[in-house]
Structures are given as structure tokens and as C-alpha cells.
Amino acid sequence: MAPTHVLRCCQRSLAWIPVIFIALVVCWSYYAYVVELCIFTIPSIGEQIVYLIFFHLSFIMFVWSYWKTIFSQPDNPSKEFRLPKADKERYEKEERPESQQEILWRAATSLPMYTRTGAGAIRYCDRCQVIKPDRCHHCSACDMCVLKMDHHCPWVNNCVGFSNYKFFILFLAYSLVYCLFIAATVLQYFIKFWTLCRRKSAENCPKNELPDTHAKFHVLFLFFVAAMFCISILSLFSYHLWLVGKNRSTIEAFRAPVFRAGSDKNGFSLGFRKNIAQVFGDQKKYWLLPVFTSQGDGLTFPTLLVPADVEQQATVTLQPEANKSAAEVPVSPVSPVSESHNHLLSNDLHANNIGEHQANNTHKPAESETITISIESES
Ligand SMILES: [Zn+2]
Ligand SMILES: [Zn+2]
Q1: Are 224 and 217 in contact (CB under 8 A)?
Q2: Where is the composition biased (Low complexity) (predicted)?
Q3: Which of 108, 256, 319, 325 has a CA positioned 20 to 30 A from the CA of residue 237?
């Protein structure tokens, strides 16, 4: 076995340590709450039942969403985004970046993309040998390009992206509910244990005091751990709710996507309600369930910037400077998408995308000097 392969295996195994740590904490919290608190400490049967029902509800939802976040395979760019074999061979033989960009630029004319690199070039992953769709990024930890990548999360040992972003938000939400519920219900027993009776038996203790049993350590720790996790999760959860409202990924919050008109952090924002629907879907009854309901296919995303600020039918004729090297072209003045001919754009997502701003773009590739866009307003 090659040393690099062994190293990779070790890295992959070690990457599970944070997940195992969380799983052990969750298992201990279950034991501490159910056995030590509810069975050994709480005297009232009615209180026990109510606590156990709500505890198990939050526990199931938390574990379910955590499981889905961990085990949802990140989505990768589809084969349409791979260079055709001939282009790929030419790209690999070519040493000049300008010529390589020209190959990419031609290949991208048939792809539904609106974003470019900061220099206006086609976003291409040399590692995966794929043209990156909008919002797609290469994750060095997973060693793959991930659609709508948000970040790589060590606590789930997975990339958070298009396939599991909803699950990740729900995981944060339910872990917060789980910790809040534990902290709130444990609090009174936490206080009682500070003033505990030194006798081992509850019968010999004064009223409203708990005996000095081993349960006290579990209950005291339970409160500390739940309160600590509450504080850390709350900030992360609030931040991601804000991102969902803005339809922005963590990566885009730090580095705005570049459109034809320049970089724009709000480039994919469609308004608060639609932004929420992009992640959680149209049907509210599924919002709180960790089942996949996000809109679209992860390859194309609606944006109000394309077609840009058009209210009524307009025809634009542009000179794409075909003879100039593609790398020098700052940002394509038109969408590189031949939407009427691109089957990727005939799906539901694109219907949403274009629905409000119907567009019929005809983009002749670089050998033609003229590009014509015919844009119709919503009728
Ligand atoms: Zn990649
Ligand atoms: Zn990753």
C-alpha cells in the first residue's frame, strides 16, 4: 500500500473523532437525563412522564437531522460540466493560460453559469477537471467539487452544501432545542443539588432536599454541558439563519460571487420569502422535517441580476472581442448561456429562475463577432 494512501486512510479515520466525541456526549446526556434525572432524582411520576415525552421528541429530531447532515453525500457537478475529451486533451497540452481560458470559454457557452473568477475567467477546477457551476467550490478536505458549498464542517465530518444545507440548519435548530430543554428542566435540580442533604436516602432527608447520591454529578454536569452547548450553538444558528434570509453561503459571505456586473454579495438573493423557500422548499409542512425539500438542482440558481435591470423587451448587440484572449475579457457582457438550447435550463429550477424575468438569450460563440440578447419582460 502506497504511503500516501495510508496517510489518506489515517486522515479519514481521524476526521471521525469530532463526530464520535459528539455521539459519546449525546449518549451520556441521554443516560444522565433519562436514568439519573428522571428515574432516580425526580420524585413525581407525572413530571417524569412529561419530561420524558418532550425529551424524546427533541432527541429524535436532533439525532435524525444530525444523521442526515453527516451521511448526505455532497452533490458534485454533473457530466455536462466536464470538458469534452478533445477539449480536455487540448487544455492539458496547452501551456499558456490565455489559450486554456479560451478553451474553457468556448466549452462554457453551452453551460448555465452566471459567475466568473475575480479576474473574469471561467471557474475551472484543475483537481476535478470540471468547470465549476455557480456557487460550486472545491473542498480540499473531501477532495471534490461540491455544489453550493457552504463550508466543510468537522463536527459532521462532511461538506455542508446543496445536498444537506437544510439538514445542517435543522441540526443546529434541534440541538439548540435539545440543550435548552435539558438546561431548563435540569435547572431546579441543579440548584437543589447545591443545597443537598448529606444523607444517602431520600426518606431521611428534609423536605425539598435531594440525597447525596451519584446522580448529583450527572445532573450538575448535565446542566453545565447543556448551557455551554446552548451558547455556542446559538451564535452559529443565528448566523446561518441570517445567511438563509440573504440566500448567501458562508463562502459567499466572505468572498462575494462575481457576476458580469462585478461582485455582489446579494447576487443570489430573491427576497426574504423566496430565499427561505430556496433552502426549505415551498411546502411549510416539511420545513421542520429533515427530508430534502430544497429548490433546484444545485447546478443553476435564480438570480435577479440576469437578465440585469430589464423592465421591457430589449435587444442588445455586443462585441465580445473574440480575437482577444479569453483571460483578458473581464466578465462576459452577456450570459454565457444559450438558454433556448440548453437542456439543463429546461428544468423546474430554471423555470423559477427565468419565470419572473423571462429571457431568451441567443449566444453565438466566439467565432461570431455579434451576440444578440432578446429579453422579454414578464407578461
Ligand atoms: Zn474540484
Ligand atoms: Zn468537504
Answers
A1: no
A2: 325-339, 368-379
A3: 256
Task: Among 248, 268, 284, identify where a domain stops.
Answer: 248
Question: How confident is the model at residue 202, as a pLDDT?
Answer: 62
Spatial separation of the C-alpha atoms in residues 127 and 140, rounded to whole Å: 10
Contact 174, 61 (CB under 8 A): yes
Residue where a domain terminates, one of 187, 214, 248: 248
3-state secondary structure of 371: strand
CA 241–ligand 2 middle distance (angstroms): 21
C-beta neighbour count of 165 within 10 angstroms: 24
For residues 148 and 169, membership in a common domain is answered with no
- C-alpha 109 – ligand 2 centre gap (Å): 29
Ligand number nearest to the C-alpha of 82: 1
- Count of structural domains within the chain: 2
Which pLDDT score is estimated for 107? 87
Counting ligands in written order, the one closest to the CA of 144 is 1
Reported as a pLDDT band with limits 50, 70 and 90, residue 214 is confident
Alpha carbon distance 54, 110 (integer Å): 53
Residue 220 grid cell: 450538575
* pLDDT classification of 200: cutoffs 50, 70, 90: low
Cα→Cα distances 149→39, 61, 146, 352, Å = 44, 24, 5, 21
Q: What is the pTM of this model?
A: 0.78
Tell me the catalytic residues: 153
Q: Which residue's entry shows cell 449525546?
A: 26
Do 53 and 171 lie in a common domain?
yes
